[in-house]
Records
---
Amino acid sequence: MTSREQLQALIRAEIDRQRPVAVARRTLELLVESATRRLDAPPGYQIVDRDGRPRTRAIAGARPGR
């Protein structure tokens, strides 16, 4: 399985976990794939915003930029 196929399988599994309605499944897969870049470093992907900048999330108690 190629890295692209592995990433697609990961995306499908996470979408399935959220139990979307059947007609939304492919649209959700395309949206997530379009916002995902494959990387060589773990975890193997990066989520980007509409401008191509990496998306981040705040973790309680962590300082920004860490």
---
Amino acid sequence: MLTRALDEGDDTALTQAVGERVAPHAGGGAYATALVDALGARALVRVAAHLPAGGGGVTGRAGSGGSGTGSTDPGVPLACTWTSLLATATSSPLWDEGHREALARDLVSLVTVTGDLTEPDTLLLPLGFRRLLTADQDPLTAAAAGTQAPGAGGGQSGPGQVPGTTSPDQVPGAGSTASPGADDGRGLGAGRGRSGSRDPLVLEPKFLASLVRGVMAGETGATTGGLRVGWVEYARLTTTAGGGYSNFPEDAPREVRARYLLYDPLAAVLTAAARTPATVLDVLAPPVSGPDPRTLGPSRRDTVRRVLATRVDGSLWAWVAARAQKAGPACLEALAAAVASASTLRYRPTAPRTNLYEEQAAWLTEQAVVTLAGVDATAWTPPARRAAAVVLANSVGDLWDVATGGVYARGYQPFYRSLPVAWSGRHDVEVTVLLREVLTDDTALAVLSRAVGVLSARHLLSAALTARAPGSWAQAEDTPWKAAHAWLLVVAGRGATLEGYLYAACATGRGVGEDEESPAAGVALAALVQGLDLHGLDPHAPWRPPAAPARAARAVTGGPSLTSQDLGDSVAYDLYHTLLLVMDRTRLLPDEAYLEPPDPFEDETDDQPPRPWNADWMYQDDQDHWHLDPDRADNDPDGFRTWTTTHPVMAATTSGRYSIGTRYDQGVSTQGRPPARHGPGIPPGQAALALLLTAATARLVYGYSHTYQRRAQRHWQHRRARQRRRQERHRHQH
């Protein structure tokens, strides 16, 4: 019936056949493999080209056995049904590897080799190829669906958990979506999981890798032989642009360039791969083959696994990267979305289930940043910038290295050891260039600024817990809470440095002057505050990537206009505010900081109950420890500021807040000077100098803070003694 409808050109009958006959059985392996074999590659693509792009039709659940669910939901597009049929066939054990590779070769030849234009639907083959692989979904949407669905990964445990998602530890190689308030992203086209349900649109990784190799071989062979690539010729014949992806006229309208999404087969394959983070790495960054660890003894098994994890076959990536740099917006969007999906696997494995893709994800994101930095500015689109922002946000530790000159991989603190494996080298120039392009988009700026907030909040909380632990260096001091406060100032300053570095890149990319107000500063500040939110944050939860493609898929509007200096002042205040909330949460602040100072004109009695400084947002727990109510304190910013600046205990520490603003200025100045290129890591001399300067700065801040507080405390005690003597003289006189 499908073949007859194609031959007769009856699109209505074709749509009815797919919706009523194919959809209920699309999830059955035997049915799918038999139908695909019977149709062949050309008919498979032709059917996809003639299916309607909108909703309508039904679909079965892949992996449901023979007949699927028999659903009659009219909201499921028929393109999804047809893609799920191909996904079921390529994943079926009824086909061996050779069968899948043969189908991949046949499909690729339809779009890389110029066919006979007299045959039916020849000019529609690139469109059908894309719809067959992507179900008419754009790259960022496909990546968002794949990393948001059940089995695709979770987020920062606690406040960052997305309703309906699970922890990445539940699925080996699953992505993470640490995005509070993100859309669930469920539906047809969700991620693969261990629970037994499989995303009906996920194509088999080796099949996708065969498609990429086929596109590479077909385009390379045609170019070498002096022939025009098939899809380029079809594009030339069906648009007024002429030429192809490599020789587009510079004055071609933007809408004409955008139509290349309908023709470029590499963009279609990358979009299909973006649906599952592990698939992207299996296709673009497969590990180098070696001995099967299962055949080795226990003493060598773990060693071999670690070695193989750090060795990646980058041959296919090298061609894809070079191709994407010159292919235009469509391919750039698909590549950025695919790497954004893979970047959600940048987290350390945790027992009992592990992440087998951490090293590959680090390698691919590093290579992608270098590649994307070399893309011409005219090729960038908002979706590409937002997907690239996800890649950078999930590499926020590496950005921290660039902004501060540090090397977090060499850190000894528990927080640094919780971060994912770092890039192999510093890429100051590439990161700076890429940030200046990407941060011209408000949504991209919000994604990255929020990641800075997440990093800073978790770093502050981890450092506070370390200082609070028995036997720590802070506990050995005369006043442990003051020592902890001084160190937390250094930690908060590092977050300010990174935020200053990001906004300076944003301002440079947008052409905003140093003293000029910009709504982008408001966007950055709002996102940073969101990332600093401590509500529900589990201090013992492992690090998870702070960004997900679903967050980048939602547009962000501009905020209030601020100058860079205004932003720096607000960043310093918000980081210091979070610092105090962390100290309160970890019980580092002394009880005296919560209590109202004694009134020198009142008689002191032993039975007088302590009075809190502010009864609205200070309370006492069952163990008589005082705490802050963060929600109520946030609703009284003036009262909170008054407490931190006028309370005798707190005022003695407030002077250190200005050091955070100084660190913000350092981040801005880092963007202002041309960064020097480095090889892998930092030269030993520079590393030693950075460590020495960090230690000296921490000691200076602590020494000043400690001295200032001690003098203020003595002054307060002397003043209180004078007031008591004055009261006694007054009573004797009367």
---
Amino acid sequence: MTTARQGVEARGIQAEEWRQRLLGYYSNFLPSLRAEEEAERYAIAQGWTASMQERLERLVAETVLRYGFRVTIKLMELLAAEATYSSSELKGEAVSLRTGAQQIESRIMQALNVGRAKLPADDAAITSVGQMMHKGAEIEVSADRYELAARLIDDVREGLLLPILEGVKGGYAFLTESVNRAQMLDGRKNPWPVQPRYGESAPSWLIPGGTERVLIEHGDFESILEMQACNSLQDQHEREVWRQVLRTRVALGQALGSGEALGVPILQRKGAWTPRDIRASVTGVTGQQAGIEFPKSFEDFAVQVDAWLADARMSADLGKFMTQGLRAYVESGTPQQQVDRQNAFIAALTAAVNVAAPFARVKPSVVAELHPNLSADGRDVLVSTIPFTAGHPLHGAILDVFRNGKLLSPKNQQQSDSWFATAKVDDISVFTMSGEAMLPMAFDNLMTPIAEAWAQASQNKDQRYSFWSLRRARPLIECIPVGPAQLQAMLRGWFVGRLLGQVTRLEERGMGWRVQVWNPDPPYNGPQPFPFPLLSNQPVSGIDLVAAVLQSLPIAMVDVHTKGNLTPLVPYHRLIELGENYGTYLADWIEDATLPPGSPTPDSGVAGAADGAAESRRQAIRAALEASRADYESVFKEAERENNPFATPLSWELRDQILAALDSLMATTIASIGKDTSL
């Protein structure tokens, strides 16, 4: 206005001349003003767009870790809708402002039309026009701002907000799939259902087993985590919300104490957004969309958390505590904490050694029977690295623990020296084993628990069946602890013994079958009992009896350990001997009706009469074998027809071996057996 008033006479000039003069100045002034404002706007816009993606990514990562994916997705959808609404409102406001600016010229004419021929420079009308022109310039500049804001909001929505929203949805989909799948891509069972959850009981895999001893009990995990995290936080408010702060720091790759960005955020940028308007872009590149990616499974999240913990710059005291070794743990803390931790360590090691020692305990009397050339005291000890070397205050106490546990002796003194070394270790493992290979029956701590459990359950039918219910995980042929040749021999021996009356059976109410085999050899001559009651999870029929007897062989082995001698195995050895020499036993009976001295007399209805002809004995035995084979075949076919795994006869699992044994015996009765008179 100062420029427009210059050169005007005191009497003034005509209104039309004022109009032309003022509008001319306005038209020349407005573009330069808008240009100046535009430069400032875009300078601000460049700063805004340059930081927008980083700020949004940080906010998204924080929200995901604090509130979860679903809440984050909903909030971002609301933000996208709000962006659309805001852009529309800004555009409408800009249009309204432009419309108002177009009315400036007519308003100037109205203001100058005051009914006087000439208007001086200081006339109120001229001052009013100046205010209108100033207001019009403000309106034009405001419209420019609104239009730029609307364009940038649209750009942010399309190029930044929606692509990031898709990335969040993708992360949620991948994570959901990873926790719901039955097994991992490498075939492992999905571990997600058994992951620890804050505020809930520790999962079983974090609870020490019977052979483990720990220095930090699982019930203390949460309180120790809180204490160690708060030790690194200086702000009282942050300590009050330490879990929220911890999640945020991990998500953004920040130092726990200071919040300084030092690591890799959990949200990875896959594309950098640049605005479509090149004037709003710092890089000079335009029209690129943002892209982000979250870890694709909860295990990927765990890997990133582990990496954060391993970086002492970020995890501070918390990371140091969680990644420290055993020696560092017992040597750290206040003096009283150190004393408590070292005492706890010695106590835990003592308990571990006491648990480990029985793993190689053998019963001397059984060792003498099974392995007369071996010593029952032979034992090897394996110990992983112990980080408390000579000179450390705990070194002597550790040696005393092993010495008192009888794991340290002059024999392994040189070996024990190698147990100690300077190294970072998290645990110490102690293993003991027999110094010599021995049969399972020699090991007291293996057999005694079985013997005690069987003794308690065997006298009650329901408890006995429960004892063996769901215990066998393999076919019966793989659970009888003998080789194929011995198994076949025992089956042949069973049928030979039944034919010759040397295998007897008697069913007792509530207890099942009492089975014996006659043995001719001292010191175990006479009837020798098989385990009684037999091992089974259901009542045993007569046709399943041989399978049940063989299934009970492990009980006989347990009895060997209990009694300290081999007597319980004598009946099984007798079956093998009968089965290996079946031809001789059958030939002696069929041809001459001869048996070992003191043997029971066979049932004439089964094996023929001793005073009868050889052919009659042959035919009787063959008829008995054929009838038995027919019975077994009928049972086996019925089982296959029913195809019911819960009602399958026990003998069906030995069907091939049983039929082969019967066929072998029948082959000896095809024709009369004569004495071999060849030279």
---
Amino acid sequence: ALLLGSVDENLNYVIAIANILLLTIVTPLTASLATLWIDWRLGLVMLLIFPLLVPFYYWRRPVMRRQMQTLGEAHQRLSGDIVEFAQGMMVLRTCGSDADKSRALLAHFNALENLQTRTHRQGAGATMLIASVVELGLQVVVLSGIVWVVTGTLNLAFLIAAVAMIMRFAEPMAMFISYTSVVELIASALQRIEQFMA
């Protein structure tokens, strides 16, 4: 029953991750195609934002993979220390060395916290850069639409509809890199499992 529950939990986790990734791809693509149907120029500019993100992703991927691997190893060490501490508590109390082991465990928690903080700060810059590229691209779409409305080549109602589509486009695209870090964490965990099984 425990194994079945664990498999079920992991399957639900994988499905949730797949849904998140679909959200970051399907929703913006659908919004772009709908905007393309409204006005081909605005839709084309929105579709061009997708290829702009690919180089940023490949630039960030090796660093992200190393960070996730380091975090995974730190979590694994800490989990082992927690299990060892919990299982050996009676022996440690009998020997009177539970305080020393407790301090060592606290030091491992602090080291993991520092590692997580450093990793988060290193990743925040890349995430902000990609979110900025998305936002600037969408502002170019809106500014282009305004120029086309002023020059009379685009109907204002079409621009308003396109702005509604842009709002559906912006959020998932800005979160794209944050979602891919979860995929890198999963890839790192699978790599460790493969090494363990070999």
